[in-house]
Amino acid sequence: MTKTEFEQSEFSDKMGLYSVVRRDDEGKLISVSYSEIYHDKINRAAVILDEATKFADDKEFSNYLTI
Questions:
Q1: 20 C-beta neighbours (distance < 10 Å), count
Q2: How far apart are CA 55 and CA 51, in angstroms?
Q3: Which residues have a Cβ under 8 Å from the Cβ of 28 and sit 6 or more positions away?
Q4: What would the pLDDT profile of 2-15 be if each residue is shown by its tens digit?
Q5: What pLDDT score does 66 carry?
Q6: Are 50 and 66 within 8 A, CB to CB?
Q7: For residues 50 and 63, what is the distance between their CA atoms, to the nearest angstrom?
């Protein structure tokens, strides 16, 4: 993708801070959210953080890990 191609393309969330620009099956530029692309990794990290709360000595830190 060139800068010109990006600037001339029209798609939703083009300048989104929480998305990635990719090409669809037809070669058009699209925006895909991080949560969709990295779904499995985000869920794995959430499980690990939830487990970590059991080992935290500080209650406030334990609560922070669940945010």
A1: 13
A2: 8
A3: 9, 11
A4: 999 999 999 999 99
A5: 86
A6: yes
A7: 10
